[in-house]
Amino acid sequence: MSNPQLHPDIEETAAKIASMEIRGAATIAAAAATALRTQAIECTAATPQDFESTLRAAARRLHTTRPTAVSLPNALRYVLRRMAGETVGTLRAGVINAADEFVDRLDRAQADLGAVGANRLRDGDTVMTHCHSTDALACIETAVDQGKSISAIVKETRPRNQGHITARELREMGVDVTLIVDSAARRYLNAVDHVIVGADSIAADGSVINKIGTSGLAVNARDRGTPVMAAAQTIKLHPDTLTGHTVEIEMRDEREVIDSETRDSIGDITVDNPAFDVTPPRYVDAIITERGQFPPESIVTLMRELFGESVDEPWEESKREKDV
Ligand SMILES: O=C(COP(=O)(O)O)[C@H](O)[C@H](O)COP(=O)(O)O
C-alpha cells in the first residue's frame, strides 16, 4: 500500500497543530489521538495490513508537525501500541478504545495534578505565569475552587501572546490578573509567591523544556528566592532522553517576530524565533504531576517506571511497506 488514503481530519489536525491553532502540549496530544480515532473509524482498508499501514501513515503525518512537545509522540505511541488483532474490526476497535482511554486519562491526570499543585498555594498568594498551560492553570483553578484567593501576574509571552489566553481564563476563574510585558517580570518577582509554568517536555535529568523565556524567568526567580513549579502530567516525560537524546527546540517563522515591511526597512539582518528553551533542574523547585510532586533530579525514577529503558516508534513504516 504505497499511498494510504488519509482521512481529511488528519491533514486538518496536522495543519492546525503546525499553525498553532491547536497548541499547548496536552491539547495537541488530545487532538492527535482524536484524529487517529477518526482515521480508524473511517478507514476503508480491506486487509489488516492495509489498515495498520494507514494508521501508521496518519501518525507519521501528525508526528511531523511540531518537534518539541513529547506529548504528541507519547499520544501516538499510546494509541498505536494498542492497535492489535487479526482483523480490521479488532484493529479498529483497539484504536478507538485506546484514543478514548487516552483522552480520558489526560483529563483525569490534569485534575489529579491540579489537586497536588493547589496544595502548594495558600490563601492570598500571588503567582506569576508564563505562556498558557492547561496543567499550570489546573493547579490555580483547584486552589480557587478550594476557596483560596489567588492573584496572578501574567506575562504576555511574545511573540504569540499566549499570556492573553491565560489572562482571560484566570479572570474567568475569578483571579485578580495583572498583565505585564515579558521584560517586566523581574520587577514584579518580589511580590510573587510562586512562579508556575507548564512543560512541553521533561528530560531525564529533570530539565524543563517550555515556552521560550521560561529559563530566564526561572533564573530570575531563583535570584529573588521565589519558588518555581512546573506543572506537567506524565505524558510530558520525554522517554528518549533516558538514552541520551536531547529535545529538539522548534524554530518558528520569523514573521511571528517582525512584519516583512519593518524587516525590509531595517536591512540585512537575521531574525531567529526559537519557540522553547531548556530550564536546568537546579532552577526548578518541584515538578507537579498526577503522581505527586517530584524534585526535578528524581523524575528519572518515575520516567523509568513508566517507559522502561527503550522506546519504540510504532508509526515507522514496516519493511513490507517500505518495499512496496
Ligand atoms: O509552552 C507551552 C505552549 O507552547 P505553544 O503555545 O507554542 O504550543 C505550554 O507551557 C506547554 O505546552 C504546556 O501546556 P499544557 O499544560 O496545556 O500542556
From TrEMBL:
Catalytic activity as recorded in UniProt: alpha-D-ribose 1,5-bisphosphate = D-ribulose 1,5-bisphosphate
Pfam families listed in its UniProt record: IF-2B
Alphabetical GO biological process terms: L-methionine salvage from methylthioadenosine; pentose catabolic process
Enzyme Commission number(s): 5.3.1.29
Molecular function GO labels: ribose 1,5-bisphosphate isomerase activity; S-methyl-5-thioribose-1-phosphate isomerase activity
Catalytic site: 131, 200
Positions in coiled-coil regions: none
NCBIfam families on file: eIF-2B_rel, ribulose_e2b2
Further facts: Reaction proceeds via a cis-phosphoenolate intermediate.
Similarity-based family: Belongs to the eIF-2B alpha/beta/delta subunits family. R15P isomerase subfamily.
Name of the featured protein: Ribose 1,5-bisphosphate isomerase
Annotated organism of origin: Halohasta litchfieldiae
